[in-house]
Structure formats: structure tokens, C-alpha cells
Amino acid sequence: MNNFYKDNELLHRQFTHPMMREIVALRERNYTEKESANLAPSNFEEAIKHYDTTLEILGGICADVIAHNAADVDRQGASCKDGRVTYADGIQENHRILTENRLYGMSLPRCFGGLNFPCVATIMATEMIARADASMVNIWSLQDCAETINEFGDEELKAEMLPRIIRGETCSMDLTEATAGSDLQSISLRASWNEETQTWRLNGTKRFITNGDADIKLVLARSEEGTTDARGLSLFVYHKSWGGVSVRRIEHKLGIKGSPTCEVIFDNAPAKLIGNRRLGLIKYVFSLMNRARIGIGAQAVGISEAALREARKYASKRKQFGHPIIELAAVAEMISVMQTKVDASRALLYETGRFAELAKGYSEKLQNEGLSTEERNRYKWAQRNADMLTPILKLSTSEYCNQITYDAIQVFGGAGVLENIPVARLYRDARVTTIYEGTSQLQVVAAVKYISNGELLASIRERITSVSEPELAERFARLADEFEQAVTYCTERGSEFFTLHQRRLVEMGAHIVMSHLLYTERHADERAEQSFRHYLAMTEAWSAERKRFIEVFDAL
Asked: What angle do CA 200, 281, 223 make, to 5 degrees?
């Protein structure tokens, strides 16, 4: 039997990272739940063994069920009739098997029936499901809505909703509207308080809602009369059994066809407030979107991994001029570059996930027990790095995903554009990763402030102090200097010039960070060493090219 966890040693390797002991200890409250909670580990080794066992089960399901169903899911898609959505047959089977194996609610506390897994483990699950079928991962990963309910909902709401999600009830984030996509502060769907029934009522339309006929919805709505900005928005939870919501239509999309993207009508639908009024966008959705962006990073890496494997397998079997085409220099180079980009993407993905989980762990400890001065500083450091790396992750992994699937089709040649060939589906599925949960352009806007305030450069210089080999240390130092010079050059020429070149600056910084992450992994095996050497060389070429472009552009 195939297994997407066992056949990828790069996944389990993430558990050996030095930060994992700290992360797991925080997650398990220093292993104090062993006496009161079923399956709670008594030490780090027990926790990792539990993660391994669960992910191995999921890896088998991904290989033998979800991947097997993916082509049929893509052909069949979802359908809509009388305001309700029906999933493709394969999606229904996938969902049933994942539910039966208790693979929803992996990150939720055990008191609600969850597995209490850290972000790093759930990222692995997301990556594997995305490798099997990007449509399915959209439905599965929307259980992240449960994290928002768990973090900001009251005890009554958590007790009502979280066990439902663990039992397999599906979720959606109902944020976007026809005139409010990236600009969420322009939301117009109304939330009105009904004194007679003592309930909130939602009225309006949402568009481009992934899994729009979900059982449980998080809905961003305007709760404050007379407002037009983010301060008038609140976040609500809605359950399908309460009525008042229907699906007008399913959008016909380029890819991820098994994941229904819907236009949703709210007609006096009852809902419950999450947290406090007016904080819907500026606090709750911001947290939700950051998690979602890490999820899209994992989706992009999963799709990239699938495309790389398909291309390598085909190139090893396809013969031209009497030899497998992988022996042709041009093809071998393409596959080598694809592998390097996948490895760099994955390194950044798990680094971001580690910082996000560490920050969350200290945040929860702060609320429950308080933090020492050292722990508080550690918390701030982790949160700062998570906030800085998340937009860089979303930008880099999604752009690489599109490049890798494009190159996979090129390896296949004419066969690659046939719809019965997996890389055609992967190419179509990849396209949206640079768009939803914030376009690449918006990720640049989010990331560039860490260039303006000097934090990204400071982080890069701090990272490269760990480079012990003189020759490599010198190369990294040159990259940091080149990056600093480019930033200074743009800054001195004013805000308009800086804005024009901000994406190039973000990409320069991102490449250096990913090069260093691959450096820290280089001794794992021959592939890791090769990927590091290749990516560092590419980073040097890309950085020089971007810096030169900025200078030449100024001279025109």
C-alpha cells in the first residue's frame, strides 16, 4: 500500500527540529494532562509517536482513497439544486473516511474530543491531503474555523460547536462579497439585533465562498448602523439547522472543482456573536486569515510535491533518442530546479508554522498561568517572526507552486495538456493559490513593512551568524549587504520609487531566508545538501538581477 507520510521522510524530519520540544511542552501544558485526558502523552517521545501514528493513518488514506478519487472529483465537481450543494461522490467518500478515522478537529483540545495536535502536525496533514487532491484539502482545512471559535468564543458556544466539527460537520468562512474582496472593511451584509427573539439576524449576500453550503459558518457582517469601515464589523457563527441561508449558485472554476465556491444568500438568518462587537475584522478575521494563509502555503507545497513526483516519474520512463528524457540536460535541470523550489517552500512552511505555534503556546500560557520575563520575551519574538514570515510564505509558496506545475507540464510535453493526465489538473488547481486568502500583491504589502522598519534585514543578519563555514558565511554576508543596499537605494529615492520596487525587495529577502533554512537542513542527506547548494546559487543570481534592475530602471 502507498502512503504519503511514509514515502516522504522530509515530513517526519520536522519533528526533530530543536524548537519542537518547547512547542510540544507548551501544547501539552508540560505533560500535566496525562491523568485526566485520554491519549494525553507523558513526555515528548510519546507525543511524537502519537503524531506519527495518526499521520501514518492519514498518509494511507491520502494515497489509497483521496488521490484515487481526485480525477473523478475533478470531472464530476459539485452540484447545486434547490439552494443546497451536493459534493462529488469522491468528496463524500473522502469525508466519510476522514470522519470515521477521527481526522477532523486534530488541533482542538481533548476536552471537546480533539487530538490537541500542534500546528506543525496539522500542516503535515494539510500538505498530504493537498498532494492527494487540492479540492479535498479546501473542505478539510476549513476546520480552522474551529480555532477561531475556540480562541474567541465563550464556553457555551465552544461546547455547542466544537464537538460538531470533530464529528465531521463542515465549515466555511463567509467573508467576501461582490464589492468587498480584498477590501473587507467594505462589507455590507447586515447583522441586526432582534429584541423580541433576543437573536442576531443576518441579511445580505456573500460571494466566492469556499464550501459555501457548510454546516457551520463564520460570517463577517456589519453590526453597527451608520458605519462604513472596519470598526463597524463583527464576526458571527451560523449553523445550517437554524435556517435562513441558501446557495444561489456554484461558480464554474478553472480548478479545485470538487470544492464548491458559492454565492450565498442570508435571509433573516439567526446567528450568534463571536467575542465582542466591532472586533470582527480587526482582531478575529485577522487571526483567522493568518492561519488560512499558512494553510494555503501547505496546500501549495502539497500540490508542488505532487507535480514534482509526476514529472520525475514520467521523465524516468519516457524515452526519446533512445534514452529516458531525464538524462537530457535540459529536462534534468528543470526537475532539479523544481525539487529545489519544493524543498525551499517546505522549509519556509514549517519554519512559519513553528513560530506560529510557539506564539500560540505562550499566548495560552499567558492567559492561564502568566509568563516570566524570559517567556514574555520569547513570546514576542515568536509572534514577531510568525507575523513577518506568514505573508512571505503565502507569496513564495504559491508563486513557486504555479511555476512548478507549469514546468511539470513542460516535462510531459504534449501529453501534459491532456485532461486525463494528472499534471493538467495540478496546473489548474495551482492557479488560485496566488489569489485566495490574499493575492500575491497583498502579501507584498503585508511583508514590506518589515523591510521598511528593518526587521527583516535584522532577522537575516541574525540568522547568518549561525553559518560557521567561512566561504558560506561570506556568501551570505554579501547577500545581506546587497539586500541592504537595494533597500537603501529605493528608500532614498522616495516612497513612490520604493513602492514600485517593493515586490523585488520582498523577494530578495525571502530568497535569503529560504537559503538559510536550507542551510540548516543541509546535512540531513544528499538531497538536502544539493537543494541548499542550488538554492543559494539561484538566490545569488536572483538578488543580483533584482538589484541591477532597480538601478537600471532608475537610470531610464
From this structure: 30
- Note the pLDDT tens digit of each residue in 379-402: 999 999 999 999 999 999 999 999
Q: Tell me the torsion sign for CA atoms 239, 243, 245, 247.
A: positive
List the one residue out of 124, 156, 161 whose CA is nearest residue 143.
Answer: 161
Q: What is the DSSP string of 343-388?
A: HHHHHHHHHHHHHHHHHHHHHHHHHHT---HHHHHHHHHHHHHHHH
CB 519 within 8 A of CB 345: no
Coil, helix or strand at residue 455: helix
Give the tens place of pLDDT for each residue, 419-447.
Answer: 999 999 999 999 999 999 999 999 999 99
Cell of 250: 456554484
The residues pairing with 273 across neighbouring beta strands, listed in sequence order, are 236
Nearest to 355 by CA among 399, 377, 388: 388
- In 3D space, the residue among 351, 361, 352, 358 whose CA is nearest the CA of residue 381 turns out to be 358
The answer to whether the beta carbons of residues 249 and 179 sit under 8 Å apart is no
Torsion of the alpha carbons at 441, 443, 445 and 450, rounded to the nearest 10: -150
- pLDDT greater than 70 at residue 556: no
Half-sphere exposure of 157 (CA within 13 A, CB side): 21
Nearest to 129 by CA among 76, 56, 61: 61
Angle between helices 67-76 and 134-141 (to 10 degrees): 90
Cell 493538467 appears where? 424
Locate 232 and state its grid cell: 463597524
How many residues are listed for the chain in this entry?
Answer: 556
Tell me how far apart the alpha carbons of residues 195 and 189 are, in angstroms, rounded to a whole number: 19
A 10 A CB-CB count for 465 gives: 9
